[in-house]
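Hi R.,

Here's the chain you asked about this morning:
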Amino acid sequence: MSIKQTLYNQCLEFIDNRLETVQNTIKDVQKSLLSETKSSAGDKHETGRAMLQLEREKAGHQLAEITKVKETLSRVNIEKSSEIIGLGSVVYTSSTNYFIAISAGELIVNNETFYAISPSTPIGQLLIGKQANDVIIFREQKFIVKELF
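And the predicted structure, written out as C-alpha coordinates:
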Protein backbone atom coordinates (compact mmCIF):
# COMPACT_ATOMS: atom_id res chain seq x y z
CA MET A 1 0.00 0.00 0.00
CA SER A 2 1.34 3.45 -0.91
CA ILE A 3 2.18 6.10 1.68
CA LYS A 4 -0.58 8.30 0.26
CA GLN A 5 -3.14 5.47 0.56
CA THR A 6 -2.07 4.78 4.15
CA LEU A 7 -2.27 8.46 5.09
CA TYR A 8 -5.69 8.72 3.44
CA ASN A 9 -6.92 5.66 5.37
CA GLN A 10 -5.64 7.10 8.66
CA CYS A 11 -7.46 10.39 7.96
CA LEU A 12 -10.64 8.45 7.16
CA GLU A 13 -10.33 6.53 10.42
CA PHE A 14 -9.79 9.82 12.30
CA ILE A 15 -13.01 11.26 10.80
CA ASP A 16 -15.00 8.07 11.40
CA ASN A 17 -13.95 8.05 15.08
CA ARG A 18 -15.00 11.69 15.50
CA LEU A 19 -18.28 10.94 13.73
CA GLU A 20 -18.99 7.99 16.01
CA THR A 21 -18.25 10.07 19.12
CA VAL A 22 -20.63 12.86 18.05
CA GLN A 23 -23.35 10.38 17.05
CA ASN A 24 -23.07 8.73 20.48
CA THR A 25 -23.32 12.14 22.15
CA ILE A 26 -26.47 12.92 20.15
CA LYS A 27 -27.98 9.54 21.12
CA ASP A 28 -27.18 10.12 24.80
CA VAL A 29 -28.71 13.61 24.74
CA GLN A 30 -31.83 12.30 22.97
CA LYS A 31 -32.16 9.56 25.57
CA SER A 32 -31.73 12.09 28.38
CA LEU A 33 -34.34 14.38 26.84
CA LEU A 34 -36.83 11.53 26.59
CA SER A 35 -36.21 10.29 30.13
CA GLU A 36 -36.42 13.79 31.62
CA THR A 37 -39.74 13.79 33.45
CA LYS A 38 -41.61 16.76 34.81
CA SER A 39 -40.54 17.22 38.38
CA SER A 40 -42.15 19.25 41.13
CA ALA A 41 -39.21 21.66 40.85
CA GLY A 42 -40.42 22.98 37.49
CA ASP A 43 -37.65 25.53 36.98
CA LYS A 44 -34.98 22.93 37.60
CA HIS A 45 -36.62 20.69 35.01
CA GLU A 46 -36.78 23.47 32.41
CA THR A 47 -33.14 24.40 33.03
CA GLY A 48 -32.11 20.76 32.59
CA ARG A 49 -34.05 20.50 29.31
CA ALA A 50 -32.57 23.77 28.05
CA MET A 51 -29.05 22.54 28.81
CA LEU A 52 -29.76 19.28 26.95
CA GLN A 53 -31.17 21.21 23.98
CA LEU A 54 -27.98 23.30 23.85
CA GLU A 55 -25.88 20.15 24.03
CA ARG A 56 -27.88 18.61 21.20
CA GLU A 57 -27.48 21.77 19.10
CA LYS A 58 -23.72 21.83 19.71
CA ALA A 59 -23.44 18.16 18.70
CA GLY A 60 -25.50 18.92 15.59
CA HIS A 61 -23.02 21.64 14.59
CA GLN A 62 -20.13 19.23 15.18
CA LEU A 63 -21.87 16.63 13.03
CA ALA A 64 -22.29 19.16 10.19
CA GLU A 65 -18.61 20.13 10.47
CA ILE A 66 -17.47 16.49 10.38
CA THR A 67 -19.65 15.88 7.33
CA LYS A 68 -17.96 18.84 5.55
CA VAL A 69 -14.50 17.54 6.47
CA LYS A 70 -15.39 14.06 5.25
CA GLU A 71 -16.56 15.55 1.96
CA THR A 72 -13.23 17.38 1.59
CA LEU A 73 -11.40 14.12 2.23
CA SER A 74 -13.51 12.36 -0.40
CA ARG A 75 -12.20 14.86 -2.99
CA VAL A 76 -8.62 13.68 -2.41
CA ASN A 77 -7.40 11.66 -5.39
CA ILE A 78 -4.79 9.26 -4.02
CA GLU A 79 -3.91 8.05 -7.52
CA LYS A 80 -2.94 11.51 -8.75
CA SER A 81 0.58 12.82 -8.41
CA SER A 82 1.44 16.43 -9.14
CA GLU A 83 4.48 18.65 -9.30
CA ILE A 84 2.50 21.45 -7.65
CA ILE A 85 1.26 21.12 -4.06
CA GLY A 86 -2.50 20.81 -3.78
CA LEU A 87 -5.22 18.78 -2.08
CA GLY A 88 -3.95 15.22 -1.66
CA SER A 89 -0.24 16.04 -1.93
CA VAL A 90 2.31 14.26 0.24
CA VAL A 91 5.02 16.86 0.91
CA TYR A 92 8.51 16.29 2.28
CA THR A 93 10.24 19.45 3.49
CA SER A 94 13.58 20.09 5.14
CA SER A 95 11.81 20.20 8.52
CA THR A 96 8.44 18.42 8.46
CA ASN A 97 6.40 16.09 6.25
CA TYR A 98 2.80 16.95 5.36
CA PHE A 99 -0.28 15.34 3.88
CA ILE A 100 -2.54 18.06 2.46
CA ALA A 101 -6.07 16.79 3.09
CA ILE A 102 -7.79 17.45 6.42
CA SER A 103 -6.59 18.55 9.83
CA ALA A 104 -6.04 15.19 11.53
CA GLY A 105 -2.80 15.87 13.37
CA GLU A 106 0.23 13.62 13.51
CA LEU A 107 0.20 10.42 11.46
CA ILE A 108 2.97 7.83 11.30
CA VAL A 109 3.68 5.68 8.25
CA ASN A 110 6.73 3.39 8.01
CA ASN A 111 8.33 5.16 11.00
CA GLU A 112 8.00 8.53 9.24
CA THR A 113 5.94 11.31 10.82
CA PHE A 114 3.51 13.30 8.71
CA TYR A 115 1.12 16.05 9.69
CA ALA A 116 -2.28 15.84 8.04
CA ILE A 117 -3.31 19.44 7.46
CA SER A 118 -6.16 21.21 5.73
CA PRO A 119 -5.32 23.46 2.78
CA SER A 120 -7.06 26.28 4.69
CA THR A 121 -4.62 26.20 7.65
CA PRO A 122 -1.90 28.89 7.68
CA ILE A 123 0.84 26.39 6.75
CA GLY A 124 -1.46 24.75 4.20
CA GLN A 125 -2.07 28.10 2.51
CA LEU A 126 1.69 28.69 2.28
CA LEU A 127 2.32 25.23 0.79
CA ILE A 128 -0.47 25.23 -1.81
CA GLY A 129 0.89 26.03 -5.26
CA LYS A 130 4.52 25.46 -4.28
CA GLN A 131 6.91 23.02 -6.01
CA ALA A 132 10.06 21.07 -5.13
CA ASN A 133 12.96 23.33 -4.12
CA ASP A 134 10.66 26.26 -3.23
CA VAL A 135 11.56 28.02 0.02
CA ILE A 136 8.85 28.66 2.58
CA ILE A 137 9.05 30.90 5.63
CA PHE A 138 6.57 30.10 8.37
CA ARG A 139 6.71 31.66 11.85
CA GLU A 140 10.22 32.92 11.19
CA GLN A 141 11.41 29.42 10.24
CA LYS A 142 12.68 28.78 6.77
CA PHE A 143 12.33 25.40 5.10
CA ILE A 144 12.57 23.92 1.63
CA VAL A 145 10.10 21.70 -0.22
CA LYS A 146 12.25 18.66 -0.98
CA GLU A 147 9.84 16.29 -2.66
CA LEU A 148 6.12 15.86 -3.28
CA PHE A 149 3.77 13.40 -4.85
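The two ends are 15 Å apart (CA to CA).

Let me know if you need anything else.
M.
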